[in-house]
Specification:
InterPro entries: Homeodomain-like_sf, HTH-type_TetR-like_transc_reg, HTH_TetR. GO terms for molecular function: DNA-binding transcription factor activity; transcription cis-regulatory region binding. The chain has 203 residues and is mainly alpha-helical. The protein has a domain of 138 residues. Helix content is 78%, strand content 0%. It is built from 9 helices and no strands. α5 crosses α9. The chain is elongated and about 55 Å long.
Length: 203
């Protein structure tokens, strides 16, 4: 009986690693392009060139433009969720100000810029809309869950779920304001105010 030789196995593993690395480069390049150039300026060819791979290699991993950009925003959203959880490995009940600041930071980086361009595109692109809607719903649920955990919020109490959701809506609004101007000073004051309000309402 024939089997897979040691040489074949040795060749396959690096090939799988290279494929994974290529996919990651494409995803990161797609997010950067989307944040910088918007949907209209972000084609598969532009992303492939930025990632340093051929257009054919890009299409091997992501057959359509929608596949590429939906996967890219999802990838970085998951990375940001992981980073947020890792900021407070032992919980953060004692420092709600730090939690509010970290949540606001989620909405002021390149991921939010890229996601915003994707939302605008989805409002006009029928193919894209259901995929982006589903993705945003999933990312939103995950962010809400992380926020509840980090704030030690008891959602069985009246108004607590709405308070946490209001915090996330506020953070998104600050992210929008930051797209046009560096709003850091005002953002710090708003973060301090919200941290105080949460201490009062969450106990």
């Amino acid at each position: 009986m024939g089997g897979v030789s040691t040489v074949d196995r040795a060749e396959r593993v690096p090939k799988q690693d290279r494929s994974r690395a290529t996919r990651q480069r494409l995803l990161e390049a797609a997010v950067s392009c989307l944040a910088e150039h918007g949907w209209a300026g972000s084609t598969v060819s532009v992303v492939a060139e930025r990632a340093g791979v051929s257009r054919g290699a890009a299409q091997h991993h992501f057959p359509t433009r929608e596949d590429l950009f939906t996967a890219a925003v999802e990838y970085v959203a998951e990375e940001r969720s992981t980073a947020l959880r890792d900021l407070f490995p032992d919980g953060a009940a004692g420092d709600r100000h730090a939690v509010v600041a970290a949540l606001v930071d989620l909405y002021t980086g390149p991921l939010f810029r890229a996601a915003l361009h994707l939302w605008v595109a989805a409002s006009n692109e029928e193919q894209l809309r259901p995929r982006v809607t589903e993705l945003e719903s999933r990312v939103g649920r995950e962010t809400h869950r992380i926020a509840v955990e980090l704030l030690s919020a008891d959602e069985s109490l009246p108004g607590v779920r709405e308070t946490v959701q209001g915090l996330l809506d506020m953070a998104r609004g600050l992210g929008l304001a930051n797209l046009l101007t560096d709003d850091a000073a005002r953002r710090e004051r708003v973060v301090a105010q919200w941290a105080g309000l949460l201490e009062e309402s969450l106990g």
